[in-house]
Amino acid sequence: MELALNEGEVIGFASGTILLHPDKAPTFFINEVGVVGGYRRCGIATRLTERLISRSRDAGCASAWLATEEQNSAARALYQRLGARETGGIIVYDWDADL
Q1: Residue 68 has pLDDT above 90, yes or no
Q2: 73-81 vs 44-58: helix axis angle to the nearest 10?
Q3: Residue-by-residue DSSP string for 26-63
Q4: Which residue, of 29, 44, 45, 60, has the greatest Cβ tally within 10 A?
């Protein structure tokens, strides 16, 4: 996890998980990137994401990936600025907590 602080208050964070596979190199899943409203568009999310990706490379991960909502234009712009490829044609499945 990476944090951005302002006078001891958390104003941004990014978290991720190394995914170990039995048949391929480890990959890094970026769980979430978030910045408090008043601090958005200041480069905080960019720096947090860059630090996560750098740490994943240092840990030996072959790649990093994440998912975001199609309508989340701010997140999509961030990831494109960071050189990520946008992949289409993926279907996501989920379950409610009351399985």
Answers
A1: yes
A2: 50
A3: -EEEEEEEEE-GGGTTSSHHHHHHHHHHHHHHHTT-SE
A4: 45
